Amino acid sequence: MMRRWKMSELNEKIKLFAFDLDGILYIGDNAMPGAVELVNHLREKYQVVFFTNNSSKTSRQVHEKLNKLRIECALNEVYTSSSATADYLKESGIDDVYVVGSKGFREEIRGHGIRIVDDDSAKNLVVGLDFDFSYDKIAIALSILLKGGKFIVCNKDRSFHAGENKFLPGCGAIVGAISAAADKKPDFIVGKPNTYILSKISKDFNVEHDEIVVVGDSYESDIKMALNYKSKSILINNNDYIAHEDIIVFKDLKELLNYRRREK
Ligand SMILES: [Mg+2]
């Protein structure tokens, strides 16, 4: 274990812990050992929020899942790339989109008052994880991009954890297919490692970048987002990282919880 910064030194400064979900607080439908205890422990002193690049579920669905796993939280503490993307569209004045994505993603977009058009007469393209992705959808996406439509994507994750030792293709695989067809990169990527979600958290909870600790299991995604935003971070169960003074690494949540209790 490598410790670069000590939470005890920063107790005065840190106000909020932001947790990644998949692979950190749960895998599939199971809470990780120590997840409930750690969140309860931190809540005694800090604001706790939750974020995920998952773009197939609404924030409401993720909120329900967390509470079912006994990780108690309020709806406004849950950030998904689906709801963040809908927020981004709204903020950017993009009000007419073709959606590659799930029912939940469409619900978030419609819920933000944005018009969904189901053919290539749509002015812009928005892409999330879509379990019914098809050749026809690439064709419609291509047509919109060739006409100069904006290309907004939830994230570029290559794959995601679907159970122990099981991975499935992520939103990035779908973005890649569309990008290849149109020879065009996305105009904006909402999810991590981009800092859009973290900047929303910062604004919503009125905390500065250096008052946030990000806890995640992916150096490339969670930790890079934290570094990009100049926040502290805790990397769990992953040796694939570059030593940096703003990162601490723990084997699992229980080790982090024990460390917290010792330092208290
Ligand atoms: Mg994760």
The main β sheet shows up as: 6 strands, parallel
Structural domain tally: 2
Unique bound compounds: magnesium ion
Rg calc: 19 Å
Q: Which overall shape is indicated by the principal axes computed on the Cα atoms?
A: elongated
Assign the CATH class of the largest domain: Alpha Beta
Low-confidence stretches: none
DSSP helical segment count: 10
Q: Can you give the mean pLDDT?
A: 92
Give the SSE string.
HEEEHEHEHEHEEHEEEHEHEHEEH
**Strand portion, in percent?**
15-25%
**What is the spatial order of strands in the main beta sheet?**
5-4-1-13-14-15
Helix content: 25-40%
Q: How would you describe this structure in keywords?
A:
single chain, 264 residues, alpha/beta, Rossmann fold, six-stranded parallel β-sheet, five-stranded parallel β-sheet, 10 helices, elongated, binds magnesium ion
How would you explain this protein's 3D organization?
The protein folds into 2 domains: 7-53 and 192-263, HAD superfamily/HAD-like (Rossmann fold, 3-Layer(aba) Sandwich); 94-189, 3-Layer(aba) Sandwich (Rossmann fold). Helix content is 37%, strand content 22%. The protein is built from 10 helices and 15 strands. The chain has helices at residues 7-10, 35-43, 59-68, 81-91, 103-111, 135-146, 171-182, 196-204, 219-229, 253-263; strands at residues 16-20, 26-27, 30-31, 47-52, 78-80, 96-100, 115-116, 124-127, 151-153, 159-163, 166-169, 188-189, 212-216, 232-236, 247-250. The strands form 4 sheets. A 6-stranded parallel β-sheet has the order 5-4-1-13-14-15. Strands 7-6-8-9-12 form a 5-stranded parallel β-sheet, with helices on both faces. Helix 9 (219-229) links the parallel strand 13 and strand 14 (232-236). The protein is elongated. The model has no long low-confidence stretch (mean pLDDT 92). The chain binds magnesium ion. Magnesium ion (MG) binds next to loops. The site of magnesium ion has 7 residues, from loops.
